[in-house]
Amino acid sequence: MPFLTHASPFPSAPCCEGLSKLHDEGSTTQGRQDFCRCLKEASHSFGVDPKRAKELSPKCGVTTSVPIDLDLCNT
After folding, report:
1. Which of 7, 10, 56, 61: CA 20 to 30 A from 20?
2. CB 34 within 8 A of CB 25
3. Which residues of the chain fall short of a pLDDT of 70?
């Protein structure tokens, strides 16, 4: 979370490991909807910067089947 809230310049290893699990979870419509709902809630509750969220995948070197983009989360 520190990277997503500007408290750290780089995402942590546990953060990137969690991101890699999204690839499997995002293989279903329900998984993608759940992810978007969680991302929206975290964004509002913890002050997640949507721009930083978009940077997470490339910074971790992880490809996900779910776009990390609040603008695309219309659930």
Report:
1. 7
2. yes
3. 23-24, 74-75
